[in-house]
Amino acid sequence: MLARVSLIDRYAARLPVTARTPRLTLGEGSTPLVRSPRLEAETGVREVWLKVEGMNPTGSFKDRGMVVAVAKALEEGASSVLCASTGNTAASAAAYAARAGVRCAVILPAGNVALGKLIQAMVFGARVVAVRGSFDDALALARRLADEGEGTLVNSVNPYRIEGQKTAAFEVCEDLGDAPDALFIPVGNAGNITAYWRGFVEAASWGLAGRRPRLYGFQAEGAAPIVRGEPVPEPRTVATAIRIGNPASWAAAVAARDASGGAIEAVTDDEILDAYGYLARCEGVFCEPASAAAVAGLRRRAKDGGLAGIERAVCVLTGSGLKDPDTATRSASPPIEVDAELDAVRRAIRGGA
Ligand SMILES: *Cc1c(COP(=O)(O)O)cnc(C)c1O
Fold first, then answer.
1. Which parts of the chain are beta strand (E)?
2. Is the CB of residue 154 less than 8 Å from the CB of residue 82?
3. How many of the other CB atoms lie within 10 Å of CB of 23?
4. How far apart are CA 228 and CA 212, in angstroms?
5. Separation of CA 276 and ligand 1 centre (Å)
6. Which residue from 140, 203, 218, 246 has the highest number of Cβ atoms inside 10 Å of its Cβ?
7. Which of 104, 109, 158, 110 is nearest to 138 (CA)?
8. Rounded to an integer, what distance in angstroms lies between the CA atom of residue 65 and that of residue 169?
């Protein structure tokens, strides 16, 4: 097996990098595309594939864009980076900043960040600021501070983030030999759906793919501004990574939806948690709740007859389930504690009374 090539080197010709751009890497990209026979049986779609982005260095797809954004910031002489985050952007920014030797500050909505993500930002040595407000408040503050010279903003409004993230679409086309018929993806700040569309359009234009997929994006019902057509002042959902009321890439996501002939829809928290448990128990794939929104959406459309003409589908599992131990603990059975005694352990293993 070859060592993983860094994302910047692998796609240098397709990215806005030059010979002077530092070859920053933590081994991001080249994530597995895993087939899901259970979802195929349930949905009737001939091929269902899971793009397991939780296998990135900090456990989410954010690393694809962050490596390019931080490398470009270094190239331009920056000595600090700054972001607002629901958690994964912070974890990724903190890791790449540590690697690059630049300072990092992250602004989080207090009390609304999954534990694993918060811990990552802390251990990587970022300055972690929790504001009493929403993610949208945090992003507005980060933008102001970046404008005033506090550091380079590495949120997905930084154009290099979307550029790096589009490489996931290239990998899907390379692994399948073409673009799929449809891509299912969670939508929060809407950068990733924008990035996939750009990647698929570019892949088709240079011949890596013979077609473009339809894009189906999914928001959580309590945080579905694009579906409702207006910002949601107090977004609510168990899926913290998509708890966003006013997406930065709103217009680009709508354009991607329409150009691809797809849709952006809402799924309930119950549907999200159901898909989350199902993927872990039935396929051995542990993603975070926000990621499961893509699979919840696929299952919903299967029930409603909304998958006509789709023979090959890809669901983007955006982040690792280990990020959010609280949701995991609430949704699975706890250990059975018994005395260190043969019969007691045997009874516990076999279950029942
Ligand atoms: C950031 C994130 C999302 C949402 O992606 P956007 O680009 O904000 O739409 C979904 N899932 C996970 C795990 C994330 O970290």
1. 33-35, 47-52, 80-84, 103-109, 127-131, 152-153, 182-186, 214-220, 263-267, 312-317
2. yes
3. 11
4. 26
5. 15
6. 218
7. 109
8. 13
Q: Kindly tell me the number of DSSP H helices and DSSP E strands found in the chain.
A: 15, 10
Cβ(67)–Cβ(163) under 8 Å?
A: no
- Residue 241: both structure tokens together: 């990574």
The continuous run of DSSP H or E covering 73 comes out as helix 62-75
Cα of 28 vs centre of ligand 1, distance in Å, is 16
Amino acid at 12: A
243 CA from centroid of ligand 1 (Å): 9
Let me know: does 210 contact 200? Beta carbons within 8 Å.
no
Structure tokens at 60: 């989410």
Decide the pairing of beta strands 47-52 and 33-35. antiparallel
Question: Which residue among 62, 242, 267 is best mutated to probe the pocket of ligand 1, counting the most ligand atoms within 8 A of its Cβ?
Answer: 242
Considering just the CA atoms, what is the radius of gyration of the chain in Å? Answer: 20
pTM: 0.96
Give the CA count within 13 Å in the CB-facing half-sphere of 266.
16
pLDDT in tens, the chain (353 residues): 455 678 999 999 999 999 999 999 999 999 999 999 999 999 999 999 999 999 999 999 999 999 999 999 999 999 999 999 989 999 999 999 999 999 999 999 998 888 999 999 999 999 999 999 999 899 999 999 999 999 999 998 999 999 999 999 999 999 999 999 999 999 999 999 999 999 999 999 999 999 999 999 999 999 999 999 999 999 999 999 999 999 999 999 999 999 999 999 999 999 999 999 999 999 999 999 999 999 999 999 999 999 999 999 999 999 999 999 999 999 989 999 999 999 999 999 998 65
